[in-house]
Each structure stands twice: as structure tokens, then as C-alpha cells.
Amino acid sequence: MSISRNLVRIIKIPLRDNKRDLAISIIAIIFTASLQMSIPYYLGLTIDKAFDGNIQQDLSITPFIQIGILVFVLSLLRGVFHYFHMFTGEKIGQSIAFKLRKSYFDKLQNLSFSFHDTVHTGDLITKGIIDIEGVRLFVNTGILRFFLLGIFILTGAVLVLRIDLILGLLALSFIPFIGIVSSVSRLSLRQNWIKLQEQLGILTRVMDENLSGVRLVRSFMRQKYELQKFSIASSVVRKTTFKQIFIKSTSISINSFTFLISMSLVIYFGALSVVDQTITIGELAALIAFMSILQGPVRHIGQLVNSIARASAASARLYDVLDQSIDVKNNKKSIKFNDPVEEIKIENLSFSYGTNEVLKNISFSANPKHSVGIVGPPGAGKTTLSRLLPRFYNLNSGRILLNGINIEDINLEYLRNSINLVDQDLFLFSDTFRENVRFGRPTADQKEIKSSTLKAHIYNHIDSLPERFETMIGERGVQLSGGQRQRLSVSRTFLYHSKVVIFDDSTSAIDTQTEKEIREEMNELGENISLIVIAHRISSVMNLDEILYLDKGTILERGNHRELIKLNGKYATLYKMQINPELRVK
């Protein structure tokens, strides 16, 4: 989609959603320009009236008092209309920004993991803040300024050409030169702005990663390296910004020089015309006043061009996200699944990241009476499998069934209410313990929150704090140990009451005894809970009904703990290394 097309989409928003405010603003612009452009006209009439056609006679002060009062009234009215123009313009801009922010954030909430896997968070934040700000400013500095400049220039052209054709053309001669210079600088400004936005995204990414990994940086004493990396990214931004300033400054200087040349020519030839009595001194004064008033708006052509260039680049980057197709979405006939899960069944599941095949023909089933554990080396596809069950990605082939229903036919909200993933990459919000525990169920009462934290063995720690559940846990739970963060994450699951629970190595930082007690609490949640545990630690899965050994995307071994030990294969080798090095399998 072209950049101009994206800009048209931005312009259509106020035409569709802010018609009344846009109409008020345009009417205010018309009156603002008309009132301001009438001042030179009345000024010329006053001067001619004061001289009364005889330049040698004494001047009458009365016309100047009258024009002073008139200019004051016209300026006052112009100020009122200018207020409405600026207020409604800013109101429209903020309204557009509000709608775009909501649409942008909503889009990010619905885009599949395959999109988020390839885009850096810093880039998305930059687009959601800086680019939307560029679009917001475009309303006043672009759309409405276009109307304002158009009315000023057209009105001024008519008035000066009525006085004298030649002098009028000289008075307007600076306008096309400024237009040419602004047009030449437009491409440079647009390309430079795109480059600047990309570099600001990189700078944001560097800062975000540094602050997120501040403890790692300090522990390895890499502050100087991080500072150097930030300085390099910042220097690139500075260089690009200076180029932007150079382009603007050059354009403004050329425009000023062009205007002064035009003004000099008008004064010289206008004086000759006054002497020749082809125009009056009042008309010459009106010409000069018209030029002085036009100078300001015409100088804004450069700002108008810059606004268009910025909005073009910003809207292109913004709609690059807004136009992304959503891979994982509800079918037209998706059903609402509220039934107890009698069985979750995986049939011949295969999945690839691009051309990289991660899972091949995976088949197994779990139900409330048949728990499943999955082990294997890093990179075997275990985490990918855990994220396919709640349908975070679409399968390449195969099926996942809940009670015989394909999960692609189940409404996503109901599906994810039924299947809860306790991820290894757990995330805690910079909020209180209470809000973190009840994130999945905001309506949970204190009794339920206490019960879930007791089952997750985190209640005693919370209860020992001065503010208990109202204690802020710090950014991403920085004030908690790894085990405490995992237990807090598990407490969400106890509160969520899902029908299928998947633990993806989410208890690795918890001691074996506590993990065992948490597992027992999970088994006591009810008869309708199907449990799938993915782990690197054998002790996490050895008591489950069936264990799968996954390697390179395929199931190499399956069975319960005793059967796999007797098999004397990969699982038995892992068991010997972790649990019983002296074991000799016969």
C-alpha cells in the first residue's frame, strides 16, 4: 500500500467521525483569514483618506484613529475565530490519536505469536507513541493548515492583483519560489524522517534491553559496553536529526531571501508608480501590508510539507501493523465450549517455524484420570507443543481435540478459559500481590485468593510482609526469588479453575518437596482437571500416568516411569544422571 494511500486513510477519519468539529474549524479558518486580509485593505483606504489625494497637505489624525479602532475590532474577532480553529483542530487531532491508540493496542492484543516473534517490543512502542503523535499533529499542521494557507494565498492574490497587475505579480512572485524549494526539500525530509523513526526504534530497543537486563549488565560489569552501544545508536540519531535541521534551516533561509527580494522590487517599482500617479500611496501601503501578512502563512509551507512528510512516514509505519492479518482467529461458526474436559487428544500434530520443522507427527491424549509428562533435551519442541494446545499458533497439520471437537472450531476465549498454560517464561506485573494473583479472575474475593496462594505455598511469604497482599512486587517481580515468582504464577492457575492445565517447566526453581505438594494440590482440584507437565527435571513427571520422551520434534519413547526405566533408553539415561547415578538397568 502506498504512502499517499495511508495518508488518505488518515484524512478520512475526521471526515467520517468529526464532521461537526471539522466544519466549525474550516468556517473559523475562513473568517480568520478574511478578517486578517481585510486589515491591509482598510489601511490603504485610511492612508488615502488621510492624504485626500494631496500628498503635500497636512495629515488628518481622525482616519488613523478610526483605522486603529477598526484594526483592534478586526484583530479581536480574528482572535476569537482563531481560537475556535485551534481548539477544534486540536480536539480532532486528539480524537484521531485516541482512536488510533485503541485500534493499535487492540490489534497488538489479537495478532498471533508468529507476529510478535519477529518484531521487537521497542519498535512497537515507538510506533504506538511517536508515530501516532506524528499523525495527531498532522490535523492542525497539515489538513487545517492547508485550508488556511489556501485561503490566505487566494484572497491575497485577488486583492493585490486588483490594485495593479504588474505590482501584484511582483508581490506574489516569492510564493512559487518558496513552493519549489519546499517541494525539493519534501523528498529529503520524508526519507530522512523514515530513517530517523527507524533509528529511534533501535535506540528505544537498546535502552529497553539494558533496563530489562540491568542486573545481568551489572553482574558482568558491562556498563561501559552498554554505554558505548547506546552512544553509537544515539550518535546515529543525532546525525540524522542534524541533517533534518540542516534541510529545514536551508529551506527557511532561501524562503526568507526570496521574500526580501520580492519586497524590494515591490517597494522600488511601487514608488515609481506612486510618482507616476498610476497607484496611490495608500494602495502601495496596502500592497506592502498584504505581503507582510502573506509572509507568515507562506513561510509555513515548509512546515506544511514537513507535516505531510512526517504523517506519511508515520501512517505507513502505523498501518504496517494495523493492516497485519490475524492468523489465529475465531471461525465464523466457532462454538462456546463450557463442558468438562473428558479428554484432550493430539492427533498427528506437525508444526514449523517457517521452513524449520519443530514437531513431527505428535500423538497422545490426556484426561482427568490420565496425566501426561513430557521430557527431553533443550530444543526438542516441548515449549512449542505447550503453546499449540491453547492455539497460540495454527497447526501445519494434524488436530487437537477437546471432547472430540477440533480446537479450531472452539471460540478462543472459551478455549483459553478451558486450557491454562503456566509458561516457563512467567510474567508478573508491576502491581500488588493481590492483582497479580487474581489477574485471570479479577472478581475473585479475598478468601479465594488466600486459598490459591496457600495451595501454591506462597501465602506465608505474603502474610509476613507489612502490607501483605497490597505489597508492590516491583517491576516483573524483581523483589522475589525465582521460586517465589513461580509459586505466585502457579497460584493464578489454582484461582483460574481451568479444565486442562499445562505446566511448562514452571516449577524448575521450586524445591522438590514443595513441587510435590503443589502437584498434590493440583490433583485435588477436582475430577475434571487434565494435567500435562513439561519439565527438564525427572522428579516433576515420574509419578504421572504417562511420560513422553521428545527429541528433535518426535516422540522417541513413551510409557510410565517403570516401563521407561525398563526400556533402558533415553529416559533411563536421563533418570540415572538426575536421580540415581548408581542405577543399573537390566
Task: Describe it.
The protein is of the alpha/beta class. Helices cover 63% and strands 10% of the residues. The protein is built from 19 helices and ten strands. The protein has helices at residues 3-17, 19-51, 62-110, 113-116, 121-163, 165-172, 174-212, 214-219, 223-275, 281-322, 382-388, 412-418, 433-437, 446-455, 459-463, 482-496, 512-523, 561-567, 570-578; strands spanning 344-353, 356-366, 372-375, 397-402, 405-406, 419-422, 500-504, 530-534, 546-551, 554-559. A six-stranded mixed beta sheet has the order 6-7-8-3-9-10, sandwiched between helices. Strands 2-1-4-5 form a four-stranded antiparallel beta sheet, with no helix packed on it. Strand 1 (344-353) and strand 2 (356-366) form a beta hairpin. The longest helix is centred in the middle third of the chain and has 53 residues, at 223-275. It is elongated, with a radius of gyration of 36 Å. The mean pLDDT is 80.
